[in-house]
Specification:
4-stranded antiparallel sheet, alpha+beta, 14% strand, single chain
């Protein structure tokens, strides 16, 4: 192939070489770009358009251009702010960022901190909540600390204002209106006074243009477009109107004191317990041998009633019958408790046991209770109640069957393209050894042979006429003597001299021998030979061949997957035309089946819901692309986005086994859940929570009705009640701070006294009176801490009451301030009056009027823009 290309280039010259080089460069870029698809450059007729004031927000080219223009405006701080939750989120994130920067500055070395910048940052944080949104948008945009959601919402706001300008025929962009240029220059000066000078403005435009890939004229056009949008925005921000009396009241809002009451109810005030699993009624003593069976989670036990002695070999739980029903019920409850099922058997009347579950140990499957005797009867009202509850809630998120995607994973496995290399021959082994001889070491020498066993000593000399017999066993000697002396036990002739002990000859030191051997070895280093490392050479070659074969197999699998993807793409349009009426026929078509069978591909069926994407992707070993890591997207989201019009993934994906392409099989919509498949623990918790919520709602309604009745009083035994008399927020806070301080002093005094007693107790010096006093102190400390907790609750409720008084009528009537699933707050304002009398200056009122008008104008601007954006989106939908 390479030779043919070389011949073609030599004959055709540059006419062939330049296009061929271009193809190679484009292919190489596509190969290196992880996660890119070869279909990115092909028109996609299945892409759903999102028209918005003449722009397609789903068109990548248009959005790329709009975002680039928005970044230019952000560089100058002239971006149009988004509306709604997007702006609130960006506002909170930027304030959080400034606080983090302030903390980082405090934690760093003081010498490295610019005091001026630190003071500026601190002032910015303090004033940030009161800054107008326009200033906030400018700072956020110029800092670049915004996400894609902020940028997209800003683009939508800008396009909406542009559409309004076009509808009003206001400053058409295609016309050069000289009288408007002066206002445009003043607008630029308001952004930065430097832009008022032509030379400076040209230099800035050129610099920003180089960074953003625009020419200076393009920068000026973008800014002029945002100048026009800002003028339209000014029209929308002129809608605020405030009376002078409103401003005066707002200035004096913190000068009011209140006489008010508040009552808070919580879920803890509801006297309701969780429903019982079942109840067991013991009407009479059962017969011996009768039994009950309980299955709860992974535990299943049989309780057999006996009259005599227990059978130690029985696997059942044996319960003595006893003399009466009450004794049997108590004995049975005790046996059930010992098995530790995860529920308690509680007495409920004479001969009745109620099974109350531990909410943290609920099983996934429904429990089962059965009896073989008519004297013991289980009542199960819970299952019917759970079934009714599930029927009402089967479409809720907790119980509904989620939408699922069914697809076929076609995996081009690397091992299917793996070619096992042959064993290396002798010539290759020797060639590899000669090329890499320096990387081999001599094999370690064989271990030395074990030392020979010691020679047995000669037998002792016979006494008198005794003959020499066999050698006896060797006895144990003195190890120290053996190391220094050598005993000569040679048998002497008769009447010879006695045995002589001779000193053993001196043996050379072991370390000296090792050093000597080492010096001899260094004098003559042995060279590694092929035969010494033959097996190591063979293993190295086999391992290298294996790595190369696996790499080649991976490349072949990737090429095969890419080829198959092209074939599916070429076949896709024909299939959609031929089987337009039924996607199932398309999916089971012989053309597609034949294409799959012609390729060396492993098929696997998968199905998943949105909650299961991460787990299923991990099972398949799908690798995340860089874009997916940045956006925290699961790999299977690409599969979930498939549809009948686009039924296969547009790029191959790396997996644990090779490369994968997914074909959509079908999709199922979200549907009602099945009672037979629901988790008992989930259903029970939701049912118990609903019972408590219903009981709490009934308690709250009953309490509010009592407060608003003729008695106009609340039940003091329910809830937390707080009264405020002649106090504002500051005075109320001071009252509770003082109360907390006094309690804290008492607690500190008791804790010091307890520490002294504990120290004496550790030293075994504590008297009996001190030990008794310690128990008293512990009780007093617990009481004080409980009082502290109650006081904190009262303080929190009191502050909420004072804050709510501004919107209440001082008529003494009770009203509901707020209610949630687990709390309710009722308030009553009896009187309101000024703490101090002072005359407000006219300038103060005028300044507050302007502030309130601007705040209302910004709110009106957001409401108008949000309405226009919603109308345009709904119209296109």
């Amino acid at each position: 192939m390479i030779t043919a290309i070389q011949n073609l280039i030599s004959k055709r010259g540059k006419l062939i070489f330049i296009p061929l080089l271009l193809v190679i460069v484009v292919s190489f870029v596509l190969y290196l770009s992880q996660g890119s698809s070869i279909f990115d450059f092909l028109p996609d007729g299945q892409r759903e358009k999102m028209e918005f004031y003449g722009h397609d927000l789903n068109d990548n080219d248009q959005m790329r251009s709009l975002n680039a223009q928005n970044r230019v405006a952000a560089d100058f701080g002239s971006s149009i702010g988004p509306v709604g939750e997007v702006m609130e989120k960006a506002d909170a994130n930027f304030l959080q960022y400034m606080n983090a920067e302030l903390q980082r500055a405090f934690a760093s070395n003081p010498q490295d901190v610019d005091r001026t910048q630190l003071q500026y940052l601190f002032q910015a944080i303090q004033s940030w909540p009161y800054q107008p949104n326009r200033l906030k948008v400018r700072r956020i945009a110029m800092s670049g600390l915004y996400d894609a959601e902020f940028s997209r919402a800003s683009v939508q706001s800008k396009l909406t204002l542009d559409a309004q300008a076009e509808a009003w025929d206001f400053l058409p962009l295609q016309h050069n209106i000289k009288s408007a240029n002066n206002y445009f220059t003043k607008w630029l000066i308001s952004i930065d006074p430097v832009l008022g000078i032509d030379a400076n403005r040209s230099q800035v435009f050129e610099s920003v243009g180089k960074n953003r890939n625009f020419d200076p004229r393009g920068i000026e056009s973008i800014l002029y477009s945002h100048f026009r949008a800002s003028l339209v925005e000014d029209v929308y921000t002129e809608g605020g109107f405030v009376l002078n009396e409103e401003a005066a009241i707002d200035l004096r809002i913190n000068d009011f004191a209140w006489d008010a009451e508040a009552l808070s109810l919580s879920l803890d005030d509801v006297n309701a317990s969780d429903p019982h699993l079942a109840t067991l009624s013991v009407a009479a003593l059962p017969k011996a041998g009768d039994s009950i069976e309980i299955s709860y989670g992974d535990k299943k036990r049989k309780f057999v009633f006996i009259t005599g002695l227990a059978d130690a070999n029985s696997s059942d739980v044996q319960v003595p019958l006893g003399q009466d029903v009450a004794g049997l019920a108590a004995s049975l409850a005790n046996s059930i408790e010992k098995e530790d099922f995860g529920f308690s058997a509680l007495p409920k009347g004479s001969g009745v046991l109620a099974f109350s579950p531990d909410s943290f140990r609920l099983p996934q499957t429904f429990p089962s209770f059965s009896s073989s005797s008519t004297a013991l009867v289980f009542s199960d009202e819970l299952t019917g109640s759970l079934a009714e509850f599930h029927e009402e809630r089967k479409n809720d998120v907790a119980f509904a069957e989620p939408a699922r995607t069914y697809a076929t994973a076609m995996t081009f496995r690397s091992r299917d393209f793996l070619s096992v290399p042959p064993e290396p021959d002798e010539a290759r082994l020797r060639s590899y050894f000669e090329r890499n001889k320096e990387s081999f070491d001599l094999p370690p020498p064989p271990p030395p042979p074990p030392p020979p066993p010691p020679a047995p000593p000669p037998p002792p000399a016979p006494e008198g006429n005794a003959s020499v017999g066999e050698q006896g066993p060797v006895g144990e000697g003195d190890p120290e003597a053996d190391s220094d002396l050598k005993i000569d036990l040679a048998l002497p002739e008769a009447d010879s001299a006695p045995l002589i002990l001779q000193e053993a000859p001196e043996t050379p030191d072991i370390d000296s021998l090792a050093l000597l051997a080492e010096s001899n070895a260094s004098a003559d280093v042995a060279e590694v030979t092929f035969e010494d490392v033959r097996e190591e050479v063979r293993q190295r070659i086999i391992e290298g061949d294996r790595i190369d074969a696996e790499r080649d197999a991976g490349d072949l699998a990737k090429d095969a997957a890419s080829k198959f993807l092209l074939q599916v793409h070429e076949l896709g349009d024909d299939l959609k035309s031929k089987y337009a009426s039924s996607y199932e026929q398309l999916r089971q078509s012989p053309e597609l089946e034949s294409l799959i069978n012609e390729n060396n591909v492993a098929l696997g069926k998968i199905d998943f819901s949105e909650q299961e994407m991460e787990i299923r992707g991990g099972i398949l070993g799908l690798e995340r692309r860089e874009s997916e890591k940045r956006n925290n997207r699961a790999p299977l989201q690409e599969v979930a986005s498939l549809s009948k019009g686009s039924f296969f993934t547009r790029s191959i994906r790396k997996s644990r086994d090779g490369y994968v392409i997914f074909l959509l099989d079908k999709k199922t919509e979200k549907g009602p859940g099945s009672f037979s498949a629901v988790s008992f623990s989930l259903l029970y918790r939701e049912y118990a929570a609903q019972l408590k919520a219903d009981a709490f709602a009934e308690l709250a309604d009953r309490t509010l009705a009592a407060l608003q009745g003729d008695s106009n009083d609340s039940d003091p035994s329910i809830g937390l009640k707080v009264e405020v008399a002649g106090k504002d927020s500051r005075l109320l806070r001071g009252y509770y701070d003082g109360a907390n301080g006094r309690i804290g002093s008492q607690l500190e005094k008791l804790e010091k006294e307890r520490d002294l007693i504990a120290s004496a107790e550790r030293d075994s010096n504590a008297t009996a009176a001190q030990l008794a006093r310690k128990e008293v102190i512990d009780g007093e400390i617990d009481a004080i801490r409980s009082r502290q907790a109650e006081l904190n609750k009262e303080s929190s409720l009191g502050q909420r009451l004072v804050d709510a008084c501004q919107g209440l009528e001082p008529d003494g009537k009770w009203s509901e301030l707020e209610r949630t699933e687990d709390s309710a707050v009722f308030v009553s304002l009896k009187a309101a009056y000024f703490l101090k009398q002072g005359k407000l200056e006219a300038s103060e009122i005028e300044a507050r009027v302007e502030d309130l008008q601007f705040a209302r104008a910004e709110k009106g601007r957001d409401l108008l823009l949000r309405d226009l954006i919603s109308q345009e989106s709904a119209q296109n939908d």
